[in-house]
Design brief:
single chain, 100 residues, alpha+beta, two-stranded antiparallel ribbon, 3 helices, 27% strand
């Protein structure tokens, strides 16, 4: 196909399948960039326990653990839309699909 094919241009900048597309804002990226490397406490609610008829009868205790906030990966199109670079946001990775 020719290099100026609109479909190829569109498909060339899709995020990888493990990157969930969202409506990111600059404020969200600023917050993720600032939080990278910090520890956060995460509490997961306990599971609901049901009796043999499927009726809830108890709840397990919640589980709490500490995790480190990692950086964030966004597509090149999101970076361009938000006006961010890896220099302005060092903890944000920009996925460039044009390089192997």
């Amino acid at each position: 196909m020719p290099d100026d094919d609109p479909l190829q241009r569109l498909l060339a900048d899709l995020p990888p399948r493990d990157v969930v597309p969202t409506a990111l804002t600059r404020a969200t990226l600023d917050a993720f960039d600032a939080m990278a490397g910090r520890e956060v406490t995460i509490t997961e609610p306990g599971q609901i326990i049901e009796d043999v008829r499927g009726i809830p009868c108890a709840i397990e205790s919640p589980t709490t653990h500490v995790a480190e906030v990692c950086g964030l990966t966004i597509s090149a199109s999101e970076a361009a839309r938000l006006g961010v670079t890896e220099h302005t946001h060092p903890n944000i990775t920009i996925a460039d699909r044009s390089t192997p």
